[in-house]
Amino acid sequence: MKSAFVRDKEFYRQLITMSVPIALQNLIGFGLTMMDTVMLGSLGEKQISASSIANQPYFIFTVFLFGLASGASVLTAQYWGKKDTSTISSILSLAMKAAVVCSLVFGLIVLVFPEFVMSLYTPDKAVIAFGAQFLRIIGFSYILSSISTTYLYILRSVENVKLPLIINFTSFVINIILNWIFIFGKFGVPAMGIRGSATATLCARFVELIFALVYAFRFDKKLTVSLATFFKVDRPLLKDFLRYSLPVVANETIWALGASLQSVIVGHISSEAVAANSIAGVVQRLAMVVTMGIANFSAVAVGKQIGAGNTQKARDYASTMLKLSIIVGILSSVFILLIRKPFLSIYNVSGTTMNYAYEIMTVYALSTFFICFNYTNIIGVLRGGGDTRFAMFADLLTLWLIALPLGAIAGLILKLPLPVVFILLTIDEPVKVIIGLPRFKSGKWLKNVTR
Predict the structure, then answer these.
(1) Under a CB-based contact definition with an 8 Å cutoff, are residues 100 and 147 in contact?
(2) What pLDDT is stored for residue 1 in this prediction?
(3) Do 203 and 139 form a contact (C-beta atoms < 8 A)?
């Protein structure tokens, strides 16, 4: 990496214009997760554990959607650099079709076999029963999310970040209000507990979809969305889409399965460990919101410059973003250390869960520094540059060959202390830095993927 930052006011203006709304979107997601855990936590650890585990299939599904949209964005960002919006619309339709098919598969599995899905993560019968109630409702939201999430994410790659923020914020407000009404039984509505949380989320995602569709068909000036485009297939473009998107989809989906297996390991330690990890995960997600904004901006900015033929500018932008990620990583880690005790005070859980959550947050404070760099480098720079295959191998090999085996041995066989288990479950992050930094310096990631 060069010693100096980019000295271009327009670059920093775009950085703020794009990354701040994306960071705010992730902050909204954090707020929703936190309110869910706080509200359900007041009902007991079984319900908060059940909600956390029942959301694992949806986590895998949303990561698949993220991979699909992120893979499509490898193409759309570079075509945006060429101002070819017609091709971007065709890419959007391809991504949307794949998302809908996937949502039907995931939705049917959790609706038809909810107890079986829960039993994969925990042997606790009470947690399985609560989680099955949640899945029987939330399963209907999968197809709604497949359309709205894919569309809103691809909007980012054409530098429209305000609309996704507005829609996500509206959905967040509706979800929180309905959570309070349905979980605790307000305004004459019977108290539904964990089923109320699922019902509120389903309603919020329906509203989110309606807003996205209205904008897409009535007001979108950048992308021409129509049913005719949806049912048309551009074969050369489909070939490009599969070539550059499939590694990202595979990357995100298999990574999500690995992350879900981490939940399986924790779930077989104790329900207190599951609840503690759910609470600690909220804090880490809060600490990562700025990094997510920077990484998403990096992918769009780098891809746009490559598509426009400005390779050196793409390299300079990437170098600056990685340096910023190091600064943000340090601040994020310090933030987690400072907020641990005050944050835990808002939860009504046992002393064991409190201690576990505190220990897990300490481990997350260390791993977050590395995650910030890897997120910006792998998801932002390398993918934005078209280097999707290397990004896939760097992500998956370190997780599946190092972190998961070591974490499983430590937690399930050797029964080591929980902090040691979590250190090993996150050991892939520093390894990815060692692998990813030389790749960036080599410049092999700079690939023009447009026709």
Answers:
(1) yes
(2) 47
(3) no
